[in-house]
């Protein structure tokens, strides 16, 4: 199919026999009932887009597909009312079809959603707070904070502050209530910071909050914090690893030990050239070969990538250094998020779903603009018409697979003047 078809050529597939609202699409299109695997039909190019009940969406879509819209209209009835999105549908497209993402964005209720940052406050005094966490707190609309933080640091921020701490025998809010509060705050198109002591993903129940929000299509970003184990070791001057003395660290919770053992998550550093040996070691230890493995390349950098595999097939992956392997059942929780290049000065206020990367900070890291690889991104966000001119002067023609997000009418008109009408999505400033 053509990469930028006229809307009259768009074929939208569906896989149920009852299509309730055929008038939803305001543009001309062809509706096609699909037999068999609807995702394969999309991958094979038999249809341009796919509409399915949100509850039928698999945990992980094929790498070349993504959800273009979450819609409230019950086009296809889903009978299981226990699912949190039982009354909603999703539209799935190939992720290189920027034109279709822009077209279906008009229906996407996620345009009215905010974003939740699960943020580590560090362990101990307020000076353990990272620069990134501080920037988020300064831009937050609401902060949900825990008991185990230096609460005096909150005095520096103007956001609404809500205490949701839990200590043994003194639960101000149970976990289900906290999950719901985060969800409802995000529905108000707010920058929501969930501030946790230490690091949010080490014994902080951040994984539960993340899964709850992701299931409801709320965009979630994790902001690492200095964990208690790092703070304690540094304060005591105890090396957690030392060549020829200790080759690793095991983190355990006494609560889990008392309640019954669970399978640990294993993390191996510097493993790009050792995947074969590592696999043999894990199998020799009797670990289930189907246990998930997340191979993380260049963790924390803009060109970070994650490959999800299993112990059984991890040795087949061609990987470069630096590489870190996360091995365990929690690795299956990995969800690919798009990267958006943001040309403005306040990336924390950008509520587009995905990881927001500031062009300014990226330029500071790179030797020159020539070192910035635009193929890493699925979209570019512009906040002023002047940014459009300067960006095109530096980078030249922009690929048609990128969505161009324009804040305000003037910015959108500038992009359309430059020939990017089909891939420009106008946003409210």
Description:
The protein has 429 residues and is an alpha/beta fold. The protein folds into four domains: 7-112, Periplasmic binding protein-like II (D-Maltodextrin-Binding Protein, domain 2), CATH 3.40.190.10; 115-226, Tetrapyrrole methylase, N-terminal domain (Cobalt-precorrin-4 Transmethylase, domain 1), CATH 3.40.1010; 262-333, Methyltransferase, Cobalt-precorrin-4 Transmethylase, Domain 2; 339-427, 3-Layer(aba) Sandwich (Rossmann fold), CATH 3.40.50. It has eleven helices and 21 strands. The strands form five sheets. Strands 2-1-3-5-4 form a five-stranded mixed sheet. A five-stranded parallel sheet has the order 8-7-11-6-12, with helices on both faces. Strand 9 (166-167) and strand 10 form a beta hairpin. The longest helix is centred in the middle third of the chain and has 12 residues, at 175-186. The protein is globular, with a radius of gyration of 23 Å. The model has no long low-confidence stretch (mean pLDDT 89).
Features of the shown structure:
Methyltransferase, Cobalt-precorrin-4 Transmethylase, Domain 2, 4 domains, 5-stranded parallel beta sheet, 5-stranded mixed beta sheet, Cobalt-precorrin-4 Transmethylase, domain 1, 429 residues, 11 helices, alpha/beta
| Count of discrete domains | 4
Strand proportion: 15-25%
| DSSP helix fraction | 10-25%
Shape, per Cα inertia axes: globular
Average pLDDT confidence is 89
CATH homologous superfamily of the largest domain, by name?
Tetrapyrrole methylase, N-terminal domain
Total beta-strand segments: 21
- Could you give a short account of the major beta sheet? 5 strands, mixed
* Order of neighbouring strands in the sheet with most strands: 2-1-3-5-4
Rg to the nearest angstrom?
Answer: 23 Å
Poorly predicted spans:
none
CATH topology of the largest domain: Cobalt-precorrin-4 Transmethylase, domain 1
Which structural category do the helix and sheet elements fall into? alpha/beta
How many DSSP helices? 11
